[in-house]
Write a structure and sequence with these properties.
It contains 6 helices and 12 strands. With 199 residues, the chain is of the alpha/beta class. A hairpin with a 3-residue loop joins strand 7 and strand 8. It has a single domain, classed as 3-Layer(aba) Sandwich (Rossmann fold), CATH 3.40.50. Strands 2-1-3-4-12-11-10 form a 7-stranded mixed sheet. A 3-stranded mixed sheet has the order 5-6-9. It has a two-stranded antiparallel sheet with strand order 7-8. Bound molecules: glutamine (GLN).
Length: 199
């Protein structure tokens, strides 16, 4: 049988965590790629049949608290550990990390990385820079009160000033910056390739 090359993407359904933060921008980015998305706000929304999940930027302490209160922390952690693909940006990276260097919290704790919150300080609260992202190419990266990764056992896809800002560990993709706040869909597309097992 002939395989429609778009079929993999068109059949894909991603759950976008929508407790707080920049989730709408992720929905729009994936929908432009032809991917179906559903918002996850409650435990009941986290169902079977999701091909992957997305953890948006925002405020990790607020998101972590809401995840706990909704009873989502453990089911989602278990699902990621069982291989559910996940893409975390900024606060999403913080939620995935197994250690935070300047904060006692650990949330999902699935990504082998020590992450520093608000790592660029007040002077450089927000900035934009062109990065080379392995597997993607030159990318316009937007940082907003961003963390960076001090140490990691994951594959480093991009760095700024010697600090990792994009990593991959199996089916976990995490960036300190916000690809959803640019018009460039290539990081989202790269995540779709991870979900489909193409890369
Ligand atoms: N500073 C936020 C935090 O620590 C992350 C910022 C972001 O997601 N843009 O959670």
């Amino acid at each position: 049988m002939l395989r429609n090359p778009l079929r993999g993407v068109l059949n894909m359904k991603l759950g976008i965590f929508a407790l707080q933060g920049a989730f709408l921008e992720h929905r729009l980015a994936f929908e432009k790629l032809g991917v179906r998305t559903v918002e996850i706000r409650r435990r009941a929304h986290f169902t079977d049949g999701l091909d992957g999940i997305v953890l948006p930027g925002g405020e990790s302490t607020v998101q972590g608290k809401l995840l706990r209160e909704e009873g989502l922390l453990y089911p989602v952690k278990e699902a990621i550990e069982s291989g559910l693909p996940v893409f975390g940006t900024c606060a999403g990276l913080i939620l995935l990390a197994d250690r935070l260097s300047n904060d006692g919290n650990v949330y999902f704790g699935v990504l082998r990385a020590t992450v520093k919150r608000n790592a660029y300080g007040r002077q450089l609260g927000s900035f934009r820079t062109d990065l080379t992202v392995r597997g993607v190419g030159e990318f316009p990266a937007v940082f907003i009160r961003a963390p960076y990764i001090e140490e990691t056992g994951a594959e480093v896809l991009a760095s700024v000033g010697g600090k990792a800002v994009a990593v991959r560990q199996d089916k976990i993709l995490a960036t300190a910056f916000h690809p959803e706040l640019t018009d460039d869909l290539r990081v989202h597309s790269y995540f779709c390739d991870i979900v489909r097992g193409k890369v």
